[in-house]
Amino acid sequence: MDPLPTPSTQPGRDALAALLARPARALIALDFDGTLAPIVADPEQARAHPDALPALAALAPKVAAVAVITGRPADVAVRYGGFAGVPGLEHLVVLGHYGAERWDAVSGEVTAPDPHPGVAAVRAELPGLLDGSGAGQGTWIEDKGHAVAVHTRRAADPQGTLDALREPLTDLATRNGLIVEPGRMVLELRPPGMDKGVALTEYVRELGAESVLYAGDDLGDLPAYTAIDKLRSDGTPGLLVCSGSEEVTELSERADIVVDGPEGVVRLLQTLANRTA
């Protein structure tokens, strides 16, 4: 059995102790891309790490709930994660579009509000903007329904392309009442008020969780980290886990535990499953 890593902060150590003492009152919340699924050049090819489902299925019956909180549409995350119909994951919840959508394993259904009208306007204008900007070569548009993302990982200079597109995409988003969320070689245009911190906080309250673990890898996970800080200050122990990478360091600088990408996240989940009654 792998040993549990020791959190680097006292609040992290307190949270891990609380989780192990009363796992049935703990929430395990996880990002998808870069955390449960390795980052790939084509987002449509992303799939959960092969050992993720067995690890989650072993841990989920021992805790209050497992939630996947992702910027992807909920049904896409369910398909790419292979979450539907897995024994042990009967009460898994996927909060897609940063919590705007929700899929429950119990019903197998997605509930979601109508898309923000600015998303349709951006969707229509974005191809022309990229073609005319001179910086759009090698980019790829991902239509998420409630948001639109521009990926630069396939470009000859991914970071340079990302930097060049930041201003024109921010202008486009602002004109249509949206915001731009930067990530690992991606700029996502989405409605304001949708973030993982809000989704996490609301689900913690709904569940009445007494401790929380949140694992993420990218800038879009920072609001969830901030939410954990607030929960801690309000008396709910929270453990911050970073699925480490060389592309983003902001999370590792704040995390209680840093693991080596999705493989490290899976090992941590496996160890928690083995250590909880």
How are the strands of the largest sheet arranged?
5-4-3-2-1-10-11-12
Tell me roughly what share of residues is in helical segments: 25-40%
Number of continuous helical runs: 8
N-to-C terminal Cα separation, in Å? Answer: 15 Å
Order of helices and strands: HEHEHEEEHEEHEEHEHEEH
What does the main sheet amount to? 8 strands, mixed
By oligomeric state, this entry counts as: single chain
The shape is: globular
Query: Helices and strands: which structural class?
Result: alpha/beta
Number of strands: 12
Mean pLDDT: 94
Beta strand % = 15-25%
Uncertain ranges: none
Description:
The structure is a single chain. The chain is α/β, with parallel strands linked by helices. Helices cover 37% and strands 19% of the residues. The strands form two sheets. It has an eight-stranded mixed β-sheet with strand order 5-4-3-2-1-10-11-12, sandwiched between helices. The chain has a four-stranded antiparallel β-sheet with strand order 6-7-9-8, covered by helices on one side. A hairpin with a 4-residue loop joins strand 4 (101-104) and strand 5 (109-111). Helix 2 (52-59) runs parallel beside helix 8, helix 4 packs across helix 5 and helix 6 (196-207) crosses helix 7 (222-233). It is globular. The model has no long low-confidence stretch (mean pLDDT 94).
